[in-house]
Amino acid sequence: MGFLCPAATITEAEEYLDSIKKEHPTATHHCYAYLLNPNEPIEYSSDDGEPNGTAGLPILNTLKSHNLMNVILIVVRYYGGTKLGKAGLIDAYQTSAQQSIESATLNTLVPIKTYELEYDYPQQSLIEKWKNEFTWIDLESSYLETVNLKIGCPKGENELFKRSLKSKEHQLIRFEITGESFHIKN
């Protein structure tokens, strides 16, 4: 049986693995793979005692073939007395991983550029115009003497958004490109 869970960090992946091991303490194997951090991908797989490359790698390849990120997939196996051989094990782990993914509700991970904007309240109409023209992801906001926004823009729209910002830069107190990240779209 397979278990697919979101995990943004190695610690989260390990915690989920531990919880599955506690749920199934008598299982013969807890084979798994994870893919984390779309900006600097981290991948790992474990055969957990199965012959090398027959469990973790098929799970990892299934995650990759579905372009999944920030997930861990664990396949729990109870030995039933029948030896499957290497090909049988690869097929069993691949099939279980595939079925786990097919039965899951998946979210889309959108790569974004992040920005910080600072402006005076009279410029709010300009900001509203941008919100309507572009896919705007609010990350953080502060409304004090001036307005400070941390926003994300999908990478596909980034160049056009950046040009629009630069053309109106004189109406803002400040704008800065702060980096790259991702947004989970439900």
UniProtKB/TrEMBL annotation:
Domain named Impact N-terminal: residues: 2-100
Family annotation (Pfam families): Impact_N (PF01205)
Superkingdom of source: Bacteria
Protein name (Swiss-Prot/TrEMBL): YigZ family protein
SUPFAM superfamilies referenced in this protein's UniProt entry, alphabetically: Ribosomal protein S5 domain 2-like
Family label: Belongs to the IMPACT family.
